Amino acid sequence: MTVSQSPIIPFTSDEAQATLRDACQVAGLTSAGARLIRLGENALYVLPAERVVVRIARSLDVLADARKEVAVSAWLNEASLPAARTTAHEQPFVVRDKPVTLWHFIESRGTPANLNDLAAVLRALHQMPVPTELALPEFDVLGRVSERISATDVLSDEERQFLLMRYQQLQAGYATLNFPLASCAVHGDAHSDNLIKAVDGTVVLIDFERFAFGPPETDLAVTAIEHTLGWGSRAEYDRFAELYGFDVMAWEGYPVLRDINELKMTTWLMQNVNENETIAQEFRNRLFCLQNPEAPRRWRPF
């Protein structure tokens, strides 16, 4: 299912809203009462009347990732790992040059998933045999980072040069790592916000665009960096590592993964600095920290 393509324009909240309206028309859904859940790498809207979540990617450059998301969802559900499910529509489809996927809304019980839930889900995921027909890509730990740096208009020439040099340094550092755990299917953005605790208590995994085959340490490092930023207690992190069975922070390669995650988190936020001043200030705070490695990390979660 496709529609005619439009000229490329910035992925703002207004553009996401326009894409949502067109996508609903294509799919035969009503956008009445649509609510924006998140604007980040994608725009996510919930359609209350349809009990559907609309996921809009930024550009056709990530169409393959949208196709992968649909395939991964089917695999996980067939393998009995609770995961978000797509609707019966033919998808992904393209609207205004943006891949769109449609997902069944998951009713939350109101209690957020925690790090204990995340440890259990990751342990199960990392032990699952991957069918060859799924054809997961090799994990690109710095995927989309250089593209974000090159495409943005919010950096000075010196800032852009600094971030690109940092990207190259970390890419080289990552290539030298010797990972102690066996490669497996990895989520690629494995934090507890990508879990939903459903009404019946089931913990459901969501957001599959970064799914790949690679070192499980990369999934574990997401929780570790959030701990080092103060977004949780030491006791919570220690319990997470105990339940999973491996403490990535105790591994000698962790500092490289930590620095990679800091760069990714900064350039991810950079995409939305024109949305409001709060985001712009936090981006500048993060960039300052990258430029000054010894500076305290007082980062706000977004």
UniProtKB/TrEMBL annotation:
<dbReference type="InterPro" id="IPR002575">
    <property type="entry name" value="Aminoglycoside_PTrfase"/>
</dbReference>
<dbReference type="Pfam" id="PF01636">
    <property type="entry name" value="APH"/>
</dbReference>
<feature type="domain" description="Aminoglycoside phosphotransferase">
    <location>
        <begin position="50"/>
        <end position="253"/>
    </location>
</feature>
<protein>
    <submittedName>
        <fullName>Aminoglycoside phosphotransferase (APT) family kinase protein</fullName>
    </submittedName>
</protein>
<dbReference type="GO" id="GO:0016301">
    <property type="term" value="F:kinase activity"/>
</dbReference>
<keyword id="KW-0808">Transferase</keyword>
<dbReference type="InterPro" id="IPR011009">
    <property type="entry name" value="Kinase-like_dom_sf"/>
</dbReference>
<keyword id="KW-0418">Kinase</keyword>
